[in-house]
Amino acid sequence: MSGNPAGRIARGTLNYPGIGSTEHGQAPEGFPCLVSRAYLGDGPDIYRRVAQGILAWELQKRSGLRVRTDSDAVVPGARVVSGFGVGPFRINAPCEVVWMHQPVPGAGPQSAGFGYGTLPGHPERGEEAFEVAIDAAGRVFLSITAFSRHSNWFYTAGGLLARAAQRHVTSRYIEGARQLAAGES
């Protein structure tokens, strides 16, 4: 893109307080927080498949969103623009990865995933995180944590619709994780 430093797919800087807060589970004051958790199965193979998928943008791709990114793998600083809708009714949601955890070698409790925050042009201001964890008993869970506020009056006016859309996309992320857990391509 012309005038876009380093060929970035989205411009601007993160536009909310508490950058990185999803990594530690504390939303900033005045930002409603939504946490969703889903059991995906048992065993390190499931954990590793889901972790690899999360770190390759698969939850976003499998959710039905149109996904453009400047990095095939999730890394801190990577930018992604997810879009939904059709034609002139398409809403784009630019974000930047603010933290990331890789799976570690060996067995035992651990988690992997990332959090990304909103950039100018996103309908919300805030952060969302996607983490898969395996506990000491080998159970595998997906956690999605999001805190946000509407970015402007237009989205505030459609607040109930925006929250319903967020719940719908979250359910699609969980379905994508279940597909990864089952080994579906």
Brief account:
With 185 residues, the protein is α+β, with helices and mostly antiparallel strands. The chain has a single domain, classed as Alpha-D-Glucose-1,6-Bisphosphate, Chain A, domain 4, CATH 3.30.530. It has helices spanning 44-54, 58-62, 153-157, 159-181, and strands at residues 33-42, 66-69, 79-84, 91-101, 110-118, 124-134, 139-150.
Structure write-up:
The protein is of the alpha+beta class. The chain has one domain (34-120, 130-181): 2-Layer Sandwich (Alpha-D-Glucose-1,6-Bisphosphate, Chain A, domain 4), CATH 3.30.530. It has helices at 44-54, 58-62, 153-157, 159-181; strands spanning 33-42, 66-69, 79-84, 91-101, 110-118, 124-134, 139-150. A seven-stranded antiparallel beta sheet has the order 1-7-6-5-4-3-2. Strand 5 (110-118) and strand 6 (124-134) form a beta hairpin. It is globular, with a radius of gyration of 16 Å. The two termini are 32 Å apart.
Layout of secondary structure:
Blueprint: E1 33-42, H1 44-54, H2 58-62, E2 66-69, E3 79-84, E4 91-101, E5 110-118, E6 124-134, E7 139-150, H3 153-157, H4 159-181
Antiparallel strand pairs: 1-7, 2-3, 3-4, 4-5, 5-6, 6-7
Which structural traits does this protein have?
Alpha-D-Glucose-1,6-Bisphosphate, Chain A, domain 4, 4 helices, 7 strands, seven-stranded antiparallel beta sheet, single chain, 185 residues, disordered N terminus, alpha+beta
**Mean pLDDT score:** 86
CATH overall fold name: Alpha-D-Glucose-1,6-Bisphosphate, Chain A, domain 4
Sheet bearing the most strands, described? 7 strands, antiparallel
Poorly predicted runs: 1-6
Portion in strands: 25-35%
Oligomer: single chain
Structure classification = alpha+beta
Q: How many alpha or pi helices? A: 4
**Domain module tally:** 1
Query: Largest beta sheet: what is the strand line-up?
Result: 1-7-6-5-4-3-2
Q: Class in CATH?
A: Alpha Beta
User: What is the CATH architecture descriptor?
Assistant: 2-Layer Sandwich
Q: How many E strands? A: 7
Q: How widely separated are the two ends?
A: 32 Å
* Shape by Cα distribution: globular
Give helix and strand order, one letter per element, not per position: EHHEEEEEEHH
Radius of gyration: 16 Å
Helix content: 10-25%
